[in-house]
Write a structure and sequence with these properties.
Blueprint lengths: L2 E4 L5 H14 L11 H7 L5 E6 L2 E10 L9 E8 L8 H15 L4 E6 L4 H9 L3 E12 L2 E11 L6
Parallel strand pairs: 4-5
Antiparallel strand pairs: 1-2, 2-3, 3-4, 5-7, 6-7
């Protein structure tokens, strides 16, 4: 049975391992190194960060980060969802993203955004399944390992708040 729990600092080593797996794929993030807990903690919203736990092992994590420090974007956040390689295919990402959406609305986030590499089809399908829509395509938005990468911008607007 999978439990979804609020992420705490003591989860960081397992979360960082899963994050590193995502970095290694070359199709999950532009990041190339794992930040320290303090840096990661500073950049992610405390009320909207979760881990999926099965048999006392973290299987995945999800979190929100602010898209801007400007107050006009106060209800808009960016989604991160990562699932351990050994745990993919068991709907863990879906459970985490569902929890993130639910909690985001409880904390006045009316728009969630994700920037996803076009080759990350599993992530695109997951987001679409949970109500995200493609709103843009950013061609050669940044380089990863010296290669220009495109990014699909996906968005979910709350039907409960900000309407």
């Amino acid at each position: 049975m999978i439990e979804i729990k609020h992420m705490r600092s003591y989860h960081w080593s397992a979360v960082a391992e899963i994050y590193q797996e995502g970095i290694a794929t070359g199709m999950a993030t532009f990041e190339t190194e794992i930040p320290s807990w303090d840096q990661w903690n500073k950049n992610h919203i405390d009320s909207c960060r979760f881990v999926a736990i099965k048999e006392n092992q973290i299987q995945g994590w999800a979190a929100l980060s602010e898209v801007s420090s400007r107050c006009v974007y106060g209800g808009v956040a960016e989604v991160s969802v990562y699932v351990a390689a050994k745990s993919r295919g068991y709907k863990i990402g879906e459970r985490l993203l569902e929890k993130l959406i639910d909690e985001s609305e409880k904390h006045a986030y009316w728009t969630l955004q994700s920037g996803i590499f076009p080759e990350n089809l599993a992530s695109i399908k997951l987001h679409e399944k949970l109500g995200f829509r493609k709103i843009g395509y950013r061609e050669k938005i940044a380089q990863l390992a010296g290669v220009w990468k495109d990014n699909i911008l996906m968005e979910k607007r709350s039907k409960k708040i900000g309407v």
